[in-house]
Amino acid sequence: MSAPRLILASASPRRRDLLSRIGAIPDAVLPADIDETPAPGELPRDYAIRMAREKALAGRNTDGEEGAHVLAGDTVVAAGRRILPKAEDEATARHCLTLLSGRRHKVLSAVALASPDGTMRERLSITSVRFKRLSDAELAAYLAGGEWHGKAGGYAIQGSAEGLIAWIEGSHSGVVGLPLFETRALLKSAGFALG
Hints:
The chain contains 6 helices and 7 strands. By secondary structure, the protein is α/β, with parallel strands linked by helices. The radius of gyration is 17 Å and the shape is elongated. The relative contact order is 0.19.
């Protein structure tokens, strides 16, 4: 019996790198193009899971990929019940980082695996993170570096922001973009041979 095929429904190089750490190399990378607008009143947990599912389904519906498993993930930064946006401009990044400065927030990282038989498996990792209280100089220096661009909540923990994080409880890889413990469990349950 041949090994199952794996499609990664993500354009994120970080997710590919993280997958390789657990010995999972996708056969193809097909980024999902879906509407990522939160529904009115949607809670961060529900939103993260819905996005991961929809991305996996979009990948499964790609022509020629009917026999493959499709893995997708979504990472959400939440301040209370509020979903913080991906920072596409410096003003948004500044707003997010000012809001997170000196306080604890949650990073919800959902992963979904759509199997060829129609089964959908999913897991959710919730990590608590606290930034130090950021000085004006620290905030300006981080913004000038540009790592915030396209990142949920305006920061990338795998970059220089890690030096501004006072405390973390949960999955570091989940904050980066793919919770490896949960992802490994999903892939193994679907028959992938991982170490």
